[in-house]
Every structure is written in structure tokens, then in C-alpha cells.
Amino acid sequence: MKLTSFILTALCGMSGWAQAADLLETFRAAQANDPVFAAARATQQAGLEKLPQGRSLLMPSISLNANSTFNDSTIQYRQPIGLPGGGNQRYNSHGYSVNLTQPLFRQQNWLAYTESELQVVQAEAQFKIAEQDLILRVAEAYFDVLIAQDSVRLAEAQKTAITEQLEHAKRNFEVGSATITDTHEAQARYDLTNAQEIAAQNALEIKRRALQQLINAIPQDLRRLGKELKLENPQPADMEKWVDDAQLSSPQLTIAQAGAEIAEKEVARNRGGHYPTIDLVASYADNSASGGGFGVGSDSTNKSVGVQLNLPLFQGGAVNSRAREAQANHERARQELENARRTIATQTRQAYLGVVSGIAQVKALRQALTSSESVLEASKLGQEVGVRTNLDVLNAQQQLFSTRRDLYQAEYNYLVSQLRLKAAAGSLGEEDLARVNQALY
Predict the structure, then answer these.
(1) What CATH number is given to the structural domain containing 242?
(2) Cα separations (Å) of 17 from 204, 211, 222, 410?
(3) What is the span of the domain harbouring residue 197?
(4) Cα separations in angstroms, 259 against 10, 108, 110, 119, 120
(5) How far is C-alpha 123 from the chain's CA centre?
(6) Which pTM does this prediction carry?
(7) Closest by Cα among 331, 328, 333, 326 to 260
(8) Strand 87-105 to strand 277-289: parallel, antiparallel, or no bridges (unpaired)?
(9) Contact at 8 Å (CB) between 433 and 135?
(10) Cβ–Cβ contacts within 10 Å for residue 157, how many?
(11) Cβ atoms 125, 247 nearer than 8 A
(12) CA distance 165 to 184
């Protein structure tokens, strides 16, 4: 059996792939089990409560007060003229009141309500970021496991091939057609490959545990890439069009824009500390006492409705200070928004170039793999006719396995780069993950 056929057999010869989990199933497991995503969902739910809290500032407030008091009083009149005699009075008094306040004009409350709408926008955008981040984290962890598995299998296949070369060197030495140096070279390369296999197995365990942290289960068999990965350029094939889309759809930019608007409203809200407030107030009170200062009980009812004006005159300069603070924070938010725009543009361009360069790299490594296979076959044939040494064959084997490992890594990077480009443009969703999942079998 040729070496290349043996490698393919070693890489494909695994049972149970029909039952292996794919990328989409792994993502859904992470959705249900990842604590980071669960925390983001809880944060979103908390953020949505900002709206009813802001709306409550415009709604009426109603309070109920009730009391029951035991009174023990002693009264002694100094010059009782036509008044009942004094003495000790013990009696109970009780009552309740209902008070209503409906804001009619409170500029600060209205602005706080409009700010709460923007805070909800921020909460939803932050959750969208968490969703996109989960997709990327799952894809990266999934492909990390695959490349680690490939590294283990390549190390095993390489060790098997070097073992054959070692046996071949020993036989040639025994019949006198080769020197002991060939045997030592093969033995050294075998020992090195054995160490690499141990390191690859350790790396595989680490990557599996990283995926376990996302899905809360030890990953078993995972579906891997097909033999012929289809390479597709970004659509549209215009980097600046992707940048424009990112400027419109990026959730990071949405958060920064909302933050700048909130900061602007904070300036007006703090300046509103000078403005008057007008409230509609109404109250109803019912009080009863079984005794009193004149020895008789009483019942009273009081109703009132009115408009209350409150005009701040001087608050020690606090209003002006808070307004200046808000103005400075507004400028900070404006600069952060500009930085977010530039950062998103840069990240989108990098992600676009990552896909384009990834395609070129995969194509180059595919050609390099074909060349490495030819070099190995030629080296083995040259060794048989005496124009190549055992070391030449070992080097050719090493080059072949290294090229194959680099090709696998480049293919995985290309797929992740596609997802990163979508995330940079703010359009990454489960359907994009499903498209990548179609490349697995």
C-alpha cells in the first residue's frame, strides 16, 4: 500500500461517524449549557426592565398611609374661663390617607424615559453580540478539536511510516548495502515522532475539555471536513461594501451610537434641574379619635385636589456642576462613537482579507501537498536505485505530514474567517453556521 493511501485510510478509518455530532448540534448544546451565554441572556432581561422603569416616572404615584395611636395626655388650664376642667385623658386615635401625585411637567422625568428606550436598544445589541460570540467560540472550539484529532492521526501515521523506514534501514545494514548511520537517522526520527504524538494527544485532551466547557458534556465523535472543501469568495466581492454594511448593522456601533445619544440627553436632563415641576396632587384622609383635649371624641374627613408648583431657586451650584459633567461625558461618548466606527471598519477589512487570503493559502497548500507526495515517491524510488539516501526519504515524509497538517489548519481557519467576516458586518446568525456545517460529513 502506498504511503498516501495509508494516510487517507488512517484519517478516515473511524467507526461511528454516522452518529457523530455536527457543528450545528454542538452550537445548540452550547446555547443551552454555556454559562457565559446564559449570563448574557440574564443581562438582556435585566436591561429590558429599564423601559418600564423609565415609563413609571411619567405615571401617577399613589400612596396609602395608616396610623393607630394610643394617647395619654394631662391638661391643666391655668385660668379656666368657660372651658371644661382639665385632667388626664387616655384615648385612641386612628386614621388613614390616600395621596396621589400625577406629574404634569417634569422635563427630567421625560428625558429619563427617552434614555430608558436607548438603554433597551443597548441591551438588545449587547445580547446580539453575545449570540455572535457564542457562534464564533463554538466554531473555534469545534475546529480546534478536529485539528487536534488530525494531528494525533498524522503523528500515528507518520510513526508507522518511519517504522517501516527504520526496518528497511536495519535490513539494508544487515546485508551490507547501507551504513549504521541510516539506522540511527531513522531511529532518531522515530523517537522524535513518538514525542510529537504524545504532545498531540495531550493537546487533543485540552481542546476537548475546552469544548466541554461550552456544552457541559465530554465531546465524543465530531463530524469533520469532507475531502473536497468548496472555496467561495465573499459575496459581494467588494471589501468597502462589507465595511458600509458593518457601519449600518454592527451591534457594537449600535451600542456606541445609543451611548452618545444617552450622553446628549443627560446634558439636557441635568440642565433641567433649574426648571420648575408641576404636579397634580390629590388626597383623601379619614381620622377618628375616641377622646381629645376637651374630653370628647371626634371623626374627621378631608379631601383635597390641586396643582403644585415647585421652582428650584438655588442648590449650591450643584445643577451647573452636573450639567458641566454631563457635557464632558457627552464629548467622551462622541469620541468613543468615532473610535467604534474606525475600529469596526478596520476589523471588517481584516476579516474580509482573512477570507480572501485563506482561500489563496488553501489552494497553495493543496498544490504543495501534491508536490510533497511526488517528492516522497521520487525519494523512495531514488533510494532504491541509490541516488537518494535514507535521510532524504525521512525528510520527504516529514515535509508531507507537515504540509497535510498545515492544509487542515488552513481549511479550518478559512471557515472560521467566513464567520468572523459575517460577525464584523453584524449579520452573523445560525443560518451562517448551518452553511459551514454543510461542509462536514
Answers:
(1) 1.20.1600.10
(2) 18, 18, 7, 23
(3) 3-33+107-274+318-437
(4) 55, 18, 18, 8, 11
(5) 12
(6) 0.86
(7) 333
(8) antiparallel
(9) yes
(10) 22
(11) no
(12) 11
What is the rounded CA–CA span in Å between residue 141 and residue 154?
20
Tell me the three cell numbers of residue 14.
473511524
262: in domain: yes
Q: Kindly give the interhelix angle for 107-175 and 430-437, rounded to the nearest 10 degrees.
A: 10
Q: What's the average model confidence in pLDDT over 107-129?
A: 96
Q: Is residue 40 one of the residues assigned to a domain?
A: no
Provide the pLDDT for residue 330: 97
| Number of separate domains in the chain | 1
Angle value at C-alpha 432, between 431 and 437, nearest 5 degrees? 90
For the chain, give the number of residues: 441
209 located within any domain: yes
Q: 210 pLDDT band (50/70/90 cuts)?
A: very high
In a domain, 85, yes or no: no
Q: Please state whether beta strands 87-105 and 61-75 pair in parallel, antiparallel, or not at all (unpaired).
A: antiparallel
List pLDDT tens digits, range 322-378: 999 999 999 999 999 999 999 999 999 999 999 999 999 999 999 999 999 999 999
Query: What are the Cα distances from residue 99, in Å, to 67, 109, 282, 405?
Result: 15, 20, 6, 77
Q: Decide if 289 contacts 297 (C-beta within 8 A).
A: yes
